[in-house]
Design goal:
It contains ten helices and eight strands. By secondary structure, it is an alpha/beta fold. The longest helix has 25 residues.
Length: 281
């Protein structure tokens, strides 16, 4: 039975996972810390619908949009190319001859970069502050976790070179002493599950020592598979401070232990994650 922490929007979905023994923290990037790419779905979904509608089937556009939205969401958190692989499958199912997934990814990324160019340029020239393009109190959270001696890792389904660039633009790279990881050209060489396995095996840690923060199905599921504690970040990126009900449902289904809209209630969040007397408290 879920409940909310007193006088807070923080929702506890499961009280059974161990807390306070954390040694490592895995963060997703887009939608979890950064909102530089906020609205990316409004670029990817219409592009895919455009491709499928161009095949001349009799499917209503609303049905195509709903179908595309479902698989885009289901694959969020994995490398972007996997969403494009799904698009090639959808084209084939409708009798078409698809482009290579990497070509679809290039087309999508070109459109997205045009949409967010002003954000990246604003951060680079100082006309936008990093805090303007991060979830509220993200930096305070990162500082609090590092002050507890935890090792922080950043892992994103976005291409690694862009994750590195955008983390630097937001001035958060230094918090991630465990490294910054992202999608590779050879996409079989990267996954969040592999990052998690490497964290645990390299340091000889049990899964219960892993804490993760993410807004996608994948990182939540991967964390729970090893017995870690998963915080689902159901941020409504268009309306700061509000909880996105659609994300809430997805993250609940993925097995999140805790749900938050952002990090404004940081003291309550830390108090729950690090009970008095726990290691790292």
């Amino acid at each position: 039975m879920s409940y909310h922490l007193p006088a807070a929007t923080i929702e506890v979905l499961s009280d059974s996972s161990p807390r306070g023994q954390f040694r490592s923290v895995l963060f997703d990037f887009d939608g979890t810390l950064s909102v530089i790419r906020a609205g990316w779905q409004d670029v990817m979904i219409p592009m895919m619908v455009e491709v499928l509608a161009g095949l001349g089937t009799d499917e209503p556009q609303a049905e195509l949009t709903a179908h595309v939205r479902e698989f885009v969401a289901r694959l969020t958190g994995k490398q972007t190319v996997y969403q494009m692989i799904q698009l090639t499958d959808e084209v084939r199912l409708r009798g078409g001859t698809p482009e290579d997934p990497l070509e679809y990814k290039r087309q999508y990324h070109d459109r997205l970069m045009e949409r967010i160019r002003h954000r990246r340029e604003g951060l680079a020239d100082g006309s936008l502050s990093p805090e303007a393009l991060m979830l509220p109190r993200s930096r305070d959270l990162l500082e609090a976790l590092r002050s507890r001696g935890l090792d922080l890792y950043l892992a994103s389904g976005t291409d690694e070179k862009y994750v590195v660039e955008e983390a630097a633009l937001l001035q958060v790279t230094g918090y991630f002493n465990g490294g910054v990881y992202g999608a590779q050209e050879d996409y079989g060489n990267f996954s969040k599950a592999k990052v998690i396995q490497n964290i645990l095996e390299t340091h000889g840690l049990a899964g219960a020592t892993l804490l993760s923060f993410g807004d996608g199905y994948v990182e939540i599921e991967n964390t729970k598979e090893v017995g870690g504690f998963a915080v689902g970040v159901a941020a409504d990126e268009a309306h700061r401070g509000e909880l996105d009900e659609w994300k809430r449902n997805r993250l609940t289904a993925a097995g999140a232990d805790l749900l938050i809209p952002d990090y404004r209630e940081l003291e309550a969040l830390l108090g729950y994650l690090f009970p008095e007397g726990g290691v790292g408290a």
